[in-house]
Amino acid sequence: MSRYSQNRANALLSTGPRTAQGKRRSSLNAIRHGLTAQAVVMPSEDVAAYQNLVASYFADLQPKGAVERQFVQTLVDTAWRMNRIAILENNLFAFESQDGDRRADPEIRSSVSMISALSDHNRDLATLSLHEQRLSRLSERTLKQLLQLQATRRQREEAEMASAANLRKLHEMKDLPYEPAEDGFVFSNSEIDSYIHRTQRVKEANAAACHDFKQAGSGR
Asked: Do residues 114 and 133 both lie within one domain?
């Protein structure tokens, strides 16, 4: 039997840590794994809650394209991990405040199973704080990059829409049909017409406001 096969067989026979110290070390490793894991949602966490968080972020930030969607996904995953840290800290303090009888409650045991190993490890509270600071910086940096990317994209879309609107009006003046795709635009004629209508209304509103301002000034 190869060394790989032997190691795998031994792993299958393993029942995990048996001593109290071994179990506490295993729990602590689970916490550290949870803070740096590649898998965002840990087995003990609520997948539906994570999916709701994803839906909320995408609805609020409305990303377009793969790059913007990746930025938003990073924000979601970072927020989820930051929420996990808050829960770990809260559960740690709750664990420390419980008496022996209440610790025997299955629900309480479940809520503190991942963090019970921290009860005698003050330095791990500092570890949680460091992870929180790192994630906070990542979130701020990612949001800034996303907003800059979206601002640039919207400026480009506005310029393209203005060009498409001018071409649309030119074709209408010549009584010719217009196909935006022929000029490389992704907008539909209905979207261009809506833009033209909105732009005209804004111009009329600005003109009316300017007229009212002048009238108010002349009446003084």
From this structure: yes
Residues 163 and 84 occupy one common structural domain: no
Q: Concatenated DSSP letters for 167-203?
A: HHHHHHHTT----GGGGT----HHHHHHHHHHHHHHH
- The reply to whether 192 and 134 lie within a common domain is no
Please give the sequence-ordered ranges of beta strands (E in DSSP) within the chain, or none if there are none.
none
Mean pLDDT of 151-162: 95
Q: Provide the number of structural domains found in the chain.
A: 2
What is the rounded distance in angstroms from the CA atom of residue 168 to the CA atom of residue 87? 56
* Token pair for 12: 């299958």
What is the pLDDT averaged over residues 111-128?
Answer: 59
User: Shortest CA distance to 84 belongs to which of 128, 124, 133, 121?
Assistant: 128
Nearest alpha-carbon partner for 187 in 196, 200, 175: 196
Each residue's pLDDT tens digit, 58-68: 999 999 999 99
Residue 116's pLDDT band (cuts 50, 70, 90): low
Total-model pTM: 0.62
Which range of residues forms the domain containing residue 181?
158-218
Domain boundary among 156, 185, 207: 156
Residues 194, 210: one domain? yes
